[in-house]
């Protein structure tokens, strides 16, 4: 029996070649505080629907890899405590033990690919952490982008990471990093990272064609579409830099590392910006959901 369970709306949409957008769940359990996390999860789904696609939030629930959650499941996940944060390494163990876990970008890509979903929207991907030359902390999200054929729409990599190193690793792994509508790489809460993106595209249709061209060439990985946060919601880089530095120092002081590091830094930045980082995070996720739905529609048009 396949461990992947499609919800009825997702199964119907896929069977009819209608557009579907995968959504991750770690952002719900580890990326945002209750109750905003539930509100955002619902708004992201509504945004995908309004933009003409079917949302498929992914999570492991009592040992089943669920692609598409109903509102009860979304609520339960948003309120659950001590939910596992699942990546490629630990998803199968969570399934085997019948437990519940939230999927990161890497794990959501795997689920999407198995379900036949090509497009996935999130906030920010994991990347190379600052100090990785000592800690070796490089997110499994980067490897996943090089081997699983899903186009991921994110607002760039989080500014808590080492962005130049993240770009270098993505280049080595052969992952196309496509800035949407601008030359600069966006940096999550800020529109510009101070780095030029390797590639730029300005509309959903060519992104869908590039996705298909990779498949036709037999290239295994996906694409990263880096969509800048809307201007009205951004926190400029200069303003955020000291906050990130302070949060990083706090993490070091308390010995936070591994899986706990990203959630800790997000929470600390939320406190230090008095909630502004969360408002920005919400705006960029909704913006990514909208673009992902457009790319999913364009991909369906190519197939019909
Ligand atoms: N973006 C957010 N909040 C998050 C994450 C991304 O705004 O919580 C999650 C994603 O699930 C991403 C993960 O895959 O953080 C990366 O974690 P790590 O650095 O441990 O690989
Ligand atoms: Mn890590």
UniProtKB/TrEMBL annotation:
What chemistry does it catalyse, as a reaction equation?
A: D-ribose 5-phosphate + uracil = psi-UMP + H2O
Q: Does the keyword Metal-binding apply?
A: yes
Gene3D superfamilies referenced in this protein's UniProt entry, alphabetically:
Indigoidine synthase domain (3.40.1790.10)
List GO BP terms, alphabetically: nucleobase catabolic process
Give one Pfam family: Indigoidine_A
> GO terms for molecular function, please?
hydrolase activity, acting on glycosyl bonds; metal ion binding; pseudouridylate synthase activity
- What is this protein called in UniProt? Pseudouridine-5'-phosphate glycosidase
Binding note for cofactor: Binds 1 Mn(2+) ion per subunit.
Q: Which GO terms describe its cellular component?
A: cytoplasm
- Which residues does the record give as substrate binding sites? 85, 105, 139-141
Quaternary assembly: Homotrimer.
Q: Which UniProt keywords apply?
A: Glycosidase, Hydrolase, Lyase, Manganese, Metal-binding
Please give the PANTHER family that the UniProt record associates with this protein: CARBOHYDRATE KINASE PFKB DOMAIN-CONTAINING PROTEIN, ZGC:136858
């Amino acid at each position: 029996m396949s461990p992947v369970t499609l919800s009825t709306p997702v199964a119907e949409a896929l069977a009819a070649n209608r557009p579907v957008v995968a959504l991750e769940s770690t952002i719900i359990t580890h990326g945002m505080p209750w109750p905003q996390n539930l509100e955002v999860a619902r708004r992201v789904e509504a945004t995908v629907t309004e933009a003409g696609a079917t949302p498929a939030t992914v999570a492991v629930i009592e040992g089943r890899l669920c692609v598409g959650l109903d509102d009860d499941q979304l609520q339960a996940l948003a309120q659950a405590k001590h939910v596992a944060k699942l990546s490629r390494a630990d998803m199968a163990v969570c399934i085997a033990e019948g437990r519940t876990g939230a999927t990161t970008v890497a794990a959501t890509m795997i689920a999407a690919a198995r379900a036949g979903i090509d497009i996935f929207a999130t906030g920010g991907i994991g990347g190379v952490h600052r100090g990785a030359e000592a800690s070796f902390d490089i997110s499994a999200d980067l490897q996943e982008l090089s081997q699983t054929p899903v186009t991921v729409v994110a607002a760039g990599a989080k500014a808590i990471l080492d962005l130049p190193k993240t770009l270098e690793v993505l280049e080595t792994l052969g992952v196309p990093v496509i800035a949407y509508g601008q030359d600069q790489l966006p940096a999550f809460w800020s529109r510009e990272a101070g780095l030029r993106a390797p590639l730029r595209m300005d509309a959903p249709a060519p992104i869908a064609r590039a996705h298909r061209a990779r498949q036709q060439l037999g290239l295994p990985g996906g694409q990263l579409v880096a969509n800048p946060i809307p201007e009205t919601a951004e926190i400029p880089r200069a303003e955020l830099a000291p906050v990130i530095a302070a949060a990083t120092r706090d993490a070091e002081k308390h010995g936070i590392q591994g899986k706990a590091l990203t959630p800790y830094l997000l929470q600390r930045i939320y406190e230090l910006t008095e909630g502004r980082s969360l408002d920005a995070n919400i705006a960029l996720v909704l913006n990514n959901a909208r673009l992902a739905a457009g790319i999913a529609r364009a991909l369906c048009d190519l197939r019909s």
